[in-house]
Amino acid sequence: MQEGDTALDFEITANNGEKVRLSNFKDKKNVVLCFYPKNHLFMCPSKKVFNMAQSVISAYADILKTDSILFAVSVDTVDDQASFVAQYNIPYLHLSDTSKDVCKKYVGLNVVGLAKRSTFIIGKNGIVRKIFHNIDVKSHGKQIAQVLSELNQSQNQNH
Question: Which of 9, 58, 103, 157 is deepest in the core (most CB within 10 A)?
Answer without folding.
Answer: 103
